[in-house]
Amino acid sequence: MNNTGAAEEGAPPADRVLSGNPKFRTWNLEEAEGGLYAGIWEATPGKWRIQYDEWEFCHILSGVSIITEEDGPAVTLRAGDSFILRPGFKGTWQVLETTRKEYVIRL
């Protein structure tokens, strides 16, 4: 396991933010050949547009978020929920309560 310790800080691009001032912290714990990444991601409240080019498995550790697919239903996610975002997914991510998730990404 590659435990980097310090979190990488970030935010969604300003032109994608729809409300709030969301900030990210990411602990990328594993990086393997072939574009495989795993770690922990955290976001503060806000809403922004998302578009996925990669495959991602997520497991919510804490907080409350709502993911809405373009022309699709809104799905509320809480601690214990798991889901997959596939390449081509477009929609919005809204953090109601600071959300922390485990992720595995395959490029």
UniProtKB/TrEMBL annotation:
Annotated protein name in UniProt:
Cupin domain-containing protein
What is the scientific name of the source organism? Answer: Phyllobacterium salinisoli
> Which InterPro entries has this protein been placed in?
RmlC-like_jellyroll (IPR014710), RmlC_Cupin_sf (IPR011051), UGlyAH_Cupin_dom (IPR008579)
(S)-ureidoglycine aminohydrolase cupin domain sequence ranges: 31-103
